Each structure stands twice: as structure tokens, then as C-alpha cells.
Amino acid sequence: MKSSAKSWEVDAAARIDGFLRQKLDLSWGKARTLVERGKVFVDGERAADTAAELRPGQRVEVRESAPRPRATAPSDLVVYVDAHVVVVRKPAGVSTVPYEERERGTLDELAARAIGQRPKSLGVVHRLDKETSGLLVFTRTWLAKKSLASQFRAHTVERRYLAIAHGVVPKRTITSTLIGDRGDGLRGSARHGEAGQRAVTHVTPLETRGKATLVECRLETGRTHQIRIHLAEMGHPLVGERVYIRDYAGPRIEAPRVMLHAAVLGFVHPKTERPVRWEEPPPADFRELWDRQRG
């Protein structure tokens, strides 16, 4: 291209990579590279998704002199960000996405704002319960969402959780079929022959203190409330559990939330096709409750 900046008004709906390919006489790969390098802006905002749909009336600008987005931007919320994904550390008490239409301040909204995108513009490929803390990834492009969604479906994403559970927890792999209602209104494992979703959790005790055990849970599948259900059905509900604990007769350790933390997240990067992995230590409330078990 001869000039450092060019712009056009969109006159018909089109994908951004196809629009650039036509306007600049580029290959598909070079058109997508322009977006990935942070050189393309739509209505003044940097475009991130190479497959984003343009609407008539929008203005597309290519700024060759625009600085490339930072590959990493550590903050209280953001662990890693590039043109394809953003990995965040979720605080306890924040919903991953809205559960009600008017809910605000959800993690997807906070993460989008932290990296300068429009609220609700990130792709959701997995979730953490509102009370759970730890690592979670959002996608920034359609291709990244397609890749990571496929990895989650194939159960190849590495997910390791730390949890504090009641009692002395043994090492065990739990395999069951989870259903939405086990007969008492709660999610749980089905009886033999009932249809549901296969769920596998690998439980490894790390340390026992008094009446509680710090455990690592490696998910082979990722079903709703899987760890909470499996530990409760083992007879060792998580500390802070208020739902899957009605069958537990032992002494309960009080906690303001479920003591569950997503400590490790790893997957194959959708662009580089290389393994990437992050670790995040538990937050202060988790550490402080575990420290109190010494006495």
C-alpha cells in the first residue's frame, strides 16, 4: 500500500477480512494479518476478529503506522492478552457472563474493558461458577473461539483446581453420569442406566489439616458443578458449600464462599498451535481459611 492510512465506508454487509481483501487487492492471509497486527479500525476502535461482520454505514480504516497491540498486559484482572485470546484471573463473587438481562459488572464485560474492547465483545468458551476464583480464557476472534471450543469439546484443555474439602480425602478418580435432577431437585450422579453427561474428576489430596483436606482436582470433563458434586458424593463436600451438602452429617467448617480455585489452565494456542499454560495461586480468602486449619 502506498499511503500510511486508508479508509472506506461500508456500503453492504461483509466480513472484515473479505472487505479488506477486496479494497486492497490482498490475499485472504494478508487481509487477516492486517487485523491480527492491530492495523485495522472500525468506527475508530481497533478490530480484533478477522471474521467480524461489518454493517452498512460503518467506517473501516487501515493505519499502517498504528503500534502493534502489546502481547502481554498483566494487571489485577488480565494475565495475558494477544490478538486472539485473553486470559484473566476471575475474582470470587463475579459472574462469568450475565445470568439476568440487567446484570452488570460481569467478567466478560470487565475483561473487554480492560483490554480496550467494547463490552460483551469477547467470545465465551467456558465458565466458572460465580463463587469460584481463578483462571479463565475468553477469545477475541471467531477462529480462536472455534479452535478453543473444539478443544473443550475434545477434553484436551488442561484444567486443574485447588479446593478445600471436609474430612480426610483419599486419592481417587470419580467417573459418573451427571443429570440435572437426581430426584431431589439437585444436580447429581444418575443411577445405573439413566441418561446424562459423562463426568470424570481426578482427585489428589495434597495436605490434611485437622478436619479439612487441600485437594487438587483435574478435570477430564467440565460439567456444571462437577467438582462440587463429585466431592460431595464422596462424602467430602467443599468447605463453604451450601447446596451439595444436605447429606453430610459431619462437622461443618464455615466459609463465606465455596473454596474452589481454578489454578492451572493450558491449551493449544489457536494461532501458533503451540501449547500455552498458566498457573495462578489462590486468592487471600482461600489462603487465610486454609491457614486457620493449622489450629
Please characterize this protein's 3D structure.
The strands form three sheets. Strands 7, 8, 9, 10, 11, 12, 13, 14, 15, 16 and 17 form an eleven-stranded mixed beta sheet that branches. The chain has helices at 16-24, 28-36, 107-114, 142-153, 226-233, 284-292, and strands spanning 5-9, 14-15, 40-42, 45-46, 53-54, 59-63, 78-81, 85-90, 123-124, 133-139, 158-166, 172-179, 188-189, 197-209, 212-219, 260-268, 275-279. The mean pLDDT is 89. Among the domains are: 5-63, RNA-binding S4 domain (Structural Genomics Hypothetical 15.5 Kd Protein In mrcA-pckA Intergenic Region, Chain A), CATH 3.10.290.10; 159-261, Pseudouridine synthase. The longest helix has 12 residues, at 142-153. With 295 residues, the protein is an alpha+beta fold.
